[in-house]
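[agent] plan:
  1. take the single chain provided in the ticket
  2. run structure prediction with default settings
  3. attach structure tokens to the ticket
  4. add a short note for the reviewer (M.T.)
[agent] executing step 1
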Amino acid sequence: MKQLFLLCCLVLFSVSATVPPKKIKLPKAYVYIPSGQLEQDGKQLAIQGFFMQATEVTNLHYREFLAALERQGRTADLEKARVRPEGWNLPGAHMEPFAEHYHQHPAFENYPVVNITREAALLYCAWLEETLQARHPDEVIKVRLPSETEWMYAARAGHKDVSYPHGNYLRNSKGQFLYNFRRFGDESIHRNPETGEIEVKKDALKKMAANLNAGTNFGPAPAKSFFPNDFDLYHMSGNVAEMVAEIDHTKGGCFNSTGYDIRIDAPDEFAGVTGASPFIGFRPLITLLEKK
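[agent] step 2 finished; step 3 output follows
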């Protein structure tokens, strides 16, 4: 009886599991992430293969989605999905030019969309799923946000125990930064002689605030910039934090995060953020399932 139960479970899993890539026309922005294992908390977790967008969803991608909702007369969904540019109005940051231009100006078409709610990101996934399913009625296509485990597996790109998508360092062998994040120089850090603690010098924080007000080195980079990891995924660390399936959780950190906070397994500095944020975007995951 026990053997029969295990056999039934195996058959059910094989029918519903993600299948290898087929010759169907998926958006060019997506790459295939092969099946494998992720070691987490001393456990080996099996990961089924999936497709993932190589970049964060861009302003252009998102405008196409909004235009489709408008054509379909989905007024209520259009309101839920709208971009909230007022999110750029951070206290003391003087980001009015971003609020005015970031989401509409052609110069920012290929930058990651931000200032949208989780509900909006899920609507985008549902719309893309409907679009792809209509093109391929003989397939079962699912579009969703990745789980934290899937995201971490994709970020590590087959490498074990690495802190970042390219290894354990923030620069490559040529000294180039690999990620878009808030950078501190060695000259900004010192050891407090009284406590022995490592601290950031106060004048460095003042300089950061001045740069923020001037718009210097602050903001997302183009979605396809810097360097991809070995799965051809861009900005899995830094640039904009990415929503995952777990409610009100993100991974990867953003352009305003420190190098420590953009580590793959870093604590989520945006945990619990429920509204639209200029620091948070998303990238969908696509699976192809066998028909039952």
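[agent] step 4 note for reviewer: The longest strand covers residues 36-40.
[agent] ticket updated
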